[in-house]
Task: structure prediction
Amino acid sequence: MQSSTYLYLGAALFIVAAATSVHIVGFRRLAKKVKVSHSVFERSALKRLKKPSRVLVPLLLLEAFLPTFRLPSYLASELLHAGGIALIVVLAWTAVVMTYVFEDVVLARYRIDVTDNLKARRIHTQIIVLRRVAVAAISVVAIGMVLLTFGQVRALGTGLLASAGIVGIVAAVAAKPTATNVVAGIQIAISQPIRIDDVVVVDGHWGRIEEIALTYVVVRVWDMRRLVLPISYLITNPFENWTKSSSDILGWVLIDVDFKAPIEEIRQAFIAILASSSNWDKNLARLQVVSSTSTTMQIRALMSARDSSTSWDLQCEVRERLIDFIASNYPDALPRTRTEFTRGFQK
Result:
């Protein structure tokens, strides 16, 4: 009996080696065909399914041939149980990988590295969040199926159901913050108050939405810091979204000048500066006196740009060149303090 057991184990090893060899040869041939293919699905599927299929193919063959082996009943039972657990895990792994393949196929059609990327960012946000929800659901189902393969767990089912009410209340209280964030993540995926690459101002921090997970959001601040926020924070607190409906934005520059400043000449210089700048989108340009004090007046240069980063560069450029223009051509128009002295007469 012992020699036959070794014989069957050797046959099992031969099946695994043969299946692995067939897998390697088959994937190499597929790689040559896909290399010249323009199909995103084929490229993504070949890349992502390579590892799980390397385990799945030998496992399926073993599951098919194992009942034909005349092994001792206790050993056959344990091997079948272990194989069943492994099969559940690998199938769950394959399902998770397929969610990534689906994500690759959809996102390839919507690029966010272009100027008009509003729709693309909306699709990216929805797909990424929903993919994470799907991965979490697949993981929970797989863990439950693995546990149900143990007879002791099934035997405890009646007792667990009897105490489900109390356990449910305790679990709900303990998991409330996590559950709140998960629900908020799904809400963001559907209603989309924010999207990937949105420009936002959160709690005084200007940055871009870099990542939206199930329970948190990462904001890349302008100085390359990362602001990590619970996703429920963005549902319950106000924040600014500069790219909610479109990526174009208005920028402005405020400059204090003397009352003698020639507004029309400064306005013409402002228009010339914009016309020579590649950062201006040629949609709006306006220069006006918006306020005054007892010593100066304030002019505002309003201009449009295709996105917030370009707008910031344009504002800095206009500010520098306008100040240089005024200082070079109308130095008397710079802010100054006037003091008047009067001489008193004595009788």
In short: Residues 2-177 form one domain. The CA atoms of residues 73 and 79 lie 10 Å apart. The mean pLDDT is 79.
